[in-house]
Amino acid sequence: MAGVLTLIFIISCLNLLLSHRCSSHPLCTNFRAPFTSKTPLSFCQYNGSICCNATEDLKLRNQFKSMNVSVSACASVLKSILCSRCDQFSAELYRIDSAQRTVPVLCNSSISTSSSQSQAKVDYCAEVWDKCHNVSIINSPFALQAKGGIQINTTSKLTELWQSKGAFCDEFGGASDDGATCFTGGPILLNSSENISPPSGICLEKIGNGSYLNMVAQPEGSNRVFLSNQAGKLWLATVPEQGSGEILGIDEPNPFLDLTDEVHADAALGLLGIAFHPNFQQNGRFFASFNCDKVRWPGCSGRCSCNSDVGCDPSNLSSDNGAQPCQYHSVITEFTANSTTLNLSLVTQIRPVEVRRILTMGLPFTSQHGGQILFGPKDGYLYIMMGDGGGSGDPYNFSQNKRSLLGKIMRLDIDTIPS
């Protein structure tokens, strides 16, 4: 499920990128928007909106040094090519909508350049060949692309891999026939007379490896958020300042809460929802919605998801994916941030001790559970979403029956529930 959402996010970004090739919009190779650095880069001389921070700039410097290029003219163009990853249009230059490249598309005089660049004929690809074709380059990015990304530890020359300038530029040059961007040796700038309209739709950013199901902001309004995965772990993360170029900071080895001993994770089972009490800063109350297996975890118990008068006698339901009806349960549980600190915004970890059970409900099948939980922004109620419990087409009409809690949104007056 998380993988599908991640794929949708990436496709959305690529659709926006591809639909605006003639009037390119800045985008970095990591699918992030360019940012303005507070300090200038020391190696790659890019200013304004860029796609590299100081750490990435240092990495490019070290890569350049490791090539050990002895000819200054060739060294100059190689430095420009490496630093093109810092360009605000690096996603275009490296064609992230297809296979990742190790070298940007080099402008070739045989094809007109993009509207985002000078309309003059530019043959930068030929310039690279002329200056570097007979120069030894250690771990050449050209060789890496030619070999499909396989690491090459030996020194190589362009003439050892391509027989002519034409053959070299057939692989690395061009790409202006469709209005796309190519590299001329320096930063790509929009023409001042060009009127760029914003892209339609939205572009969502991939976080981590796509394994998180929920993201909830910490209630006090700081830059801290909580991310949970399906297996039952919840992490505290720090969102970087806008425009800083930094990545989301997650301490993977040390989760804020670990419920993997209680949670049963499978294709459609797991930790499905998290919610903080609106007064979390004062009371430390925290809620989780997850699935459990009564066979594996004795604490997973409760009545069947629908009572007998609506036809949910477990003995009358067929098994599903090897599971018996009511073997798995949906559980809404309250936890507390047990800590000696008085400032709960500084709490980094809580013990997985259940304070009280809000709801336990057996499930007739192994899919379609819902599980999202949210606090109303003004009324203080906890809203609980439930799917229809599975089965093709809701065969027992659980969603349509008001006696069943399946296929419903429930609302609790949370502060008056007895402890």
What would a concise description of this structure say?
The radius of gyration is 28 Å and the shape is elongated.
Labels describing this entry:
419 residues, 2 domains, four-stranded antiparallel β-sheet, 8 helices, disordered N terminus, signal, Quinoprot_gluc/sorb_DH_b-prop, 6-blade_b-propeller_TolB-like, Glucose/Sorbosone dehydrogenase domain-containing protein
Could you explain how this protein is built, in words?
The chain has 419 residues and is of the alpha+beta class. The protein has helices at residues 2-18, 54-67, 72-83, 90-93, 124-132, 141-146, 165-172, 280-283; strands spanning 35-36, 49-50, 137-138, 155-156, 212-217, 224-229, 233-238, 249-250, 257-258, 271-276, 285-293, 328-336, 356-362, 370-375, 382-386, 409-412. It folds into two domains: 25-172, no CATH class; 212-416, TolB, C-terminal domain (Neuraminidase, 6 Propeller). The protein has eight helices and 16 strands. Helix 2 packs antiparallel against helix 3 and helix 5 (124-132) crosses helix 7 (165-172). The protein is elongated and about 80 Å long. It starts with a helix and ends in a 7-residue tail after the last strand. The relative contact order is 0.09. It comes from Gossypium stocksii. Residues 1-24 form the signal peptide.
Straight-line N-to-C gap:
35 Å
What is the CATH class designation of the largest domain? Mainly Beta
Largest beta-sheet characterization: 5 strands, antiparallel
Provide mean pLDDT, rounded.
79
Number of strands: 16
SSE pattern, N- to C-terminal: HEEHHHHEHEHEEEEEEHEEEEEE
Q: What structural class results from the helix and strand content?
A: alpha+beta
Task: Identify the CATH homologous superfamily of the largest domain.
Answer: TolB, C-terminal domain
